[in-house]
Amino acid sequence: MTENCSPEAVFKDIRENYKEITERINEAAIKSGRKYEDIRFMAVTKTVQPIFINYALSLGIDLIGENKVQELISKTESLIPADVEKHIIGHLQTNKVIKAVPLVSVIQSVDSIKLAGEIDRVSEKLQKNTDILLEINIGGEESKTGFPVDGFEEAVCKAAEFKHIRVKGIMTIPPICSSSDEARKFFYKAHKIFVDIADKNIDNIDMNILSMGMSSDYSEAIAEGANLVRVGTALFGRRRY
Ligand SMILES: *Cc1c(COP(=O)(O)O)cnc(C)c1O
After folding, report:
1. Tell me: the pLDDT tens digits for 131-175?
2. Which residue out of 63, 214, 240 has the highest number of ligand 1 atoms within 8 Å of its CB and is therefore the one to mutate?
3. In the chain, at which end, N or C, are there fewer CB atoms within 10 A of the end residue's CB?
């Protein structure tokens, strides 16, 4: 988005990008034996100005994701509609939980039991239950947040004990892959864990949402069972920090 780009030119890009994305989601959904409607689309709006977010919302997008609570707060009042569904998808510090809980419907990036506990505590105080996803570090990368694959089931069981959070599924970001086959292996692995845990029917654990797939790999993620994809760059263009 260069400065001599009129908003209209950017709107056109967003509109065309969204059309292409929906076509690819549709294809991938059908290939995996599902329908377009089975896949939830999230527009990742970090660094994107409200004018462009609102344009995306006007196209029918009904879910946005932000990494930072503060950035989400600063934009919320400008959004149309202001109550569009919002999720936190970035690492959340425990001291930000108090601001996040009233604002979002799902915290996708719960990566420690300490954080889950704080969400539970704040939710109780605000007399609500908060939906969360547990983030798994599917590639075992040191640079990434998320529960390790090995301790994941134990984490699920611990999270199940909190009375004011409801675990709705899993979120993951695979390592950067050089081929789509390589990416699919990580998505396959995450989907298998998702299904295995669902089969255990743990109290207070619903495995409804499998959030994986971003601009470069959402087709692969859907092919392996994702039902929520988080797309930023492919919709809005390259981010300018
Ligand atoms: C930024 C971000 C995305 C979107 O990434 P793109 O490659 O721009 O689509 C998705 N998920 C998380 C957790 C992110 O931080």
Report:
1. 999 999 999 999 999 999 999 999 999 999 999 999 999 999 999
2. 214
3. C
